[in-house]
């Protein structure tokens, strides 16, 4: 009798993950990378998407206003390459900054280091939001 109760409880706790086609997940992740919060927006979580978009883009803009430095991929330092990946994780915002000619090369400005940290942190937060939207799509999180 004890075995059957344990077996029933295990069956009740076992929840199937929804099957999401791979193509849908790829489109969701690319959208979440290009525009912060869009992965949540596409899943109908508009409030969360607005908060994420506003906070990540605000951090990126503050980093630019503090004359944050852009990292380059061809740098010999591995830390600079990681910074490059972090900054480009913001998505389209980084391309827009490059398009309008922002280079962030004034390393003698007082707040350049803080600005650089803001730029990289915005990219890292966008990566976290990408993983969050993936977990929501897979049914692992509400």
Number of strands: 0
Instruction: Write down the secondary-structure element order.
Output: HHHHHHH
- Summed over residues and divided by their number, the pLDDT gives a mean of 87
Number of helices: 7
User: Nearest-angstrom radius of gyration?
Assistant: 20 Å
Q: Beta-strand level of the residues, as a percent range?
A: under 5%
Structure overview:
The structure is a single chain. With 142 residues, the chain is mainly alpha-helical. The protein has one domain. Helices cover 67% and strands 0% of the residues. The protein contains 7 helices and no strands. α4 packs antiparallel against α7. It starts with a helix and ends in a 5-residue tail after the last helix. The model has no long low-confidence stretch (mean pLDDT 87).
Brief account:
Helices cover 67% and strands 0% of the residues. It is mostly helical and 142 residues long.
Q: How are the SSEs placed, and which strands pair?
A:
Blueprint: H1 2-13, H2 22-34, H3 38-42, H4 46-65, H5 78-88, H6 92-99, H7 112-137
Helix pairs in contact: 2-7, 4-7, 5-7
Short key terms for the protein model shown above:
elongated; 67% helix; mainly alpha; 142 residues
């Amino acid at each position: 009798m004890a075995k059957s109760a344990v077996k029933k409880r295990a069956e009740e706790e076992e929840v199937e993950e929804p099957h999401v086609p791979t193509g849908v997940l790829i489109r969701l992740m690319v959208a979440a990378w290009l525009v912060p919060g869009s992965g949540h927006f596409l899943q109908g979580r508009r409030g969360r998407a607005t908060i994420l978009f506003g906070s990540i883009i605000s951090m990126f803009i503050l980093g630019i206003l503090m004359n944050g430095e852009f990292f380059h991929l061809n740098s010999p330092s591995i830390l600079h390459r990681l910074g490059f990946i972090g900054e480009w994780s913001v998505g389209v915002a980084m391309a827009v900054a490059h398009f309008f000619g922002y280079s962030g090369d004034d390393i003698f400005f007082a707040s350049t280091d803080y600005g650089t940290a803001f730029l990289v942190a915005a990219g890292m937060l966008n990566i976290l939001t990408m993983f969050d939207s993936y977990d929501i799509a897979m049914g692992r999180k509400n």
